[in-house]
Amino acid sequence: MTTPTVSTEPNTRANTHVGAKPFDLSQPSVRTAPVSDEHAVVSIKDFNLWYGNFQALHHVSLNIPKNQVTALIGASGCGKSTLLRAINRMNDLIPIVKTDGTITYEGVDLYDRAVDPVEVRRRVGMVFQKPNPFPKSVFDNVAFGPRLNAYKGDLNALVEKSLKRAALWEEVKDKLKGSGLGLSGGQQQRLCIARAMATEPDIILMDEPTSALDPMSTDRIEGLIHEIKEHYTVVIVTHNMQQAGRVSDRTAFMHLGVLIEEGPTDQIFTNPKHEMTERYVEGRFG
Amino acid sequence: MERKTPGMLGRARAVGLNKRADRRVGEAVIGTLLLLCALVSVVTTVAVVYSIAEETFQFFREVSVVEFFTSRVWTPLFENQNFGIAPLVLGTLMVTSIACVIGLPLGLGAAIYLAEFAGDRTRRTVTPILEVLAGIPTVALGYFALLFVTPVIRDLIPGVNLFNPLSAGFVMAFLILPTVTSISVDSLRAVPRSLREAGYGLGASKFELITRVVVPAALSGIIASFILAISRAIGETMIVTLASGGRPNFTFDPRQEMATMTAFIVQAGTGDQAAGSLGARSLYAVAAVLFTITLVLNILSQQVVRRFSEKYE
């Protein structure tokens, strides 16, 4: 029998259950070289979100710069996926969700009653944790969004362009009629990225897009994220800090639904200002 | 693998790990009893199929197969015997088609509502009602068709016979509706959340999601429910016997009396045909055709369901 080792560190895990107060929730987020409102494509201001009675996001404010990659990092349950899904109103699909605060895109508050969430999702694409191609052909997967929008242009050209941008064209150009489910996991995820790009969104949200993939496929998708930011603004949730370091321009660290610190990625990783950020990026919890 | 070590039995006994003979015997007896239960259904099926095949074989020694499948007159119980099964098959197809035209879309619509729109409370209320519908004795449905539906149809449409496939098909639609709905609901709800999120994430509205993602993904389950419903409609007996009549009639006019295959079997079986007579044997020939059709449909639906279960990953 081994005796359990007693950690001299404060037990951060014990603090992750509901109701615990590891720190003052109302303290302001630490910001390094903040993005001004003029340079932000999406501006999140004092945003709160509840699942029923449980508050998952507390007064989050974050500006997301255009044509850059913003990474959201933090331990499981910190609200990073919830925040990501708030940007294209995917949380609306859960009936018990309530929000306040604003998320502004092109001067429009996405949570205003005048806004149609369906239209929001056509402008803000999303890639999910597990590849989820439709049980349709490769072509029909990519053409799904354009067809919803009754796309007027050359659909074949759009599908080809999207697949090329997703670095998948060479592998599937001879089997566009084959099922999307016949591809490997990494190819399926690139297909999902191509599918998201085919609706010609301004922003692409990625919710841990490589967590279900092998290292080779992960590498390809990380390279892809680097390339596509020329055309799109990318927000990526990741568990993997090396990944955040490799792909993102800016990083936001969250804990228990609070935005603790945000800034340029190299600053967050080499010179974090908040003690919790430092502990997290050094891998001491999470 | 097990191996034998000298002295191990004693040690196993000492700590209570030894094999116990009484348990092994008990399990063997139970296993045998359950095997017998399974065998009963197999033996019954084989016996029924054999007797149908035997009588059908005897029937075709006297009646030509060509006449059976090409003649348009069916009068095996009359003095002047004619053996063309076409009017009976047509009657069955007529009633089944009417039932399907009404019942399949209605059943699918109800399934989409229950699976995608209804709240948990509605679903919990409506589903048992559908099951009650499936449990109404068909003889009651048959009288309902004859006594309530037929008069209404005769008021609405001129020239409708007292016995007609319209009324029988209409009521049969409600018999097959629960089959379509319950199987379709299951296959619609089996469409994974990840596919729904993918659709919503690309800007699909709820209606677009249902028509372009959920229904196509559940399609083989839905088709299987259709095939099973058709198979049930073809084999249904009491509604058609009571409401569609017993006179074989080669016509495409649904206002006329039309006998189905099942209605003929009832007629021949309850009549005074001598066993072994050609009239009695014709019953088995019709039964063989009926059995073949429903067997093919059931196999087809199993194939479709198998494809369905391999679908998403």
Structural summary, described in words:
Chain A has 10 helices and 11 strands. Chain A has helices spanning 80-87, 117-123, 138-148, 155-165, 169-172, 185-198, 215-228, 241-247, 265-270, 275-281, and strands spanning 30-31, 40-51, 54-65, 69-73, 97-105, 108-109, 124-127, 203-207, 233-237, 250-255, 258-264. Chain A starts with 29 loop residues before the first strand and ends in a 5-residue tail after the last helix. Chain A has 286 residues and is an alpha/beta fold. A 7-stranded mixed beta sheet of chain A has the order 1-11-10-4-9-8-7, with helices on both faces. In chain A, helix 3 runs parallel beside helix 6. Chain A has one domain: 3-Layer(aba) Sandwich (Rossmann fold), CATH 3.40.50. Residues 1-21 of chain A have low confidence and may be disordered. In chain A, 31% of the residues lie in helices and 24% in strands. Chain A is globular, with a radius of gyration of 20 Å. In chain A, a hairpin with a 2-residue loop joins strand 2 and strand 3 (54-65). With 313 residues, chain B is mainly alpha-helical. Chain B has 2 domains: 21-62; 86-309, MetI-like fold (Orthogonal Bundle), CATH 1.10.3720. Helices cover 74% and strands 0% of the residues of chain B. Chain B has helices at 8-14, 21-62, 65-70, 86-117, 120-135, 138-156, 165-189, 193-201, 206-217, 219-235, 238-243, 261-270, 278-309. In chain B, helix 2 (21-62) packs across helix 13, helix 4 (86-117) packs antiparallel against helix 10 and helix 12 runs antiparallel to helix 13 (278-309). Chain B is flat and about 90 Å long. The A-B interface holds A 88, 90, 93, 118-119, 121-123, 125-126, 128, 130, 132-136, 144-145, 147-149, 181, 192, 195-196, 199 and B 192, 194-205, 208, 212-213, 216-217, 311-313.
